[in-house]
Amino acid sequence: MDTHTSRVASSVETAVTDKSFEHPARVSNAARRKKQPGIKLQIAIRVLAAMATLAAALLMFLSEQKTEFFGLSIIANYKFSPAFKFFVIGNAVACAYAVLSLTAVGCCGSTLPCVQFLDTLAMGLVMAAAAAATAVGYIGKKGNSVAMWNANLAK
């Protein structure tokens, strides 16, 4: 062998036997998790978000209100308003996503672009559902005199 070939062969042999360098595809999930600070905090926040959205969806789904109006019994339920249906479904979807995203975060971390994008979508869904339910609730409580929706009839 000439000197150039022997130098290339020795450098290749050194690179192959050197354990300090690992190919990114061969890095284990445990090593990947160690490199990401705050993974326990992210998992705790996702569990908290799943519990909060589940509680909101179940509270709205299971609640029912009855009132008397001129001797008639009137029942209010979430099914009677599209905004309240959107609130229940939006929170249920966000809860399911939070539970499913726990596996992705626990395995690969939250640096995946799809996890960050879906986190943003879930946040937007919950915010829109809460805003819609709040608007309907406000009109139901206070009424709207311009639209002649009086809320004080049942008093």
TrEMBL record:
The keyword Transmembrane applies. This is CASP-like protein. It is a multi-pass membrane protein. The chain crosses the membrane at residues 43-63, 83-105, 117-139. The keyword Transmembrane applies. Homodimer and heterodimers. Belongs to the Casparian strip membrane proteins (CASP) family. Its main location: membrane. Residues 38-151 form the Casparian strip membrane protein domain. It is found in: Cell membrane. Pfam families: CASP_dom (PF04535). Keywords: Cell membrane, Membrane, Transmembrane, Transmembrane helix. GO terms for cellular component: plasma membrane.
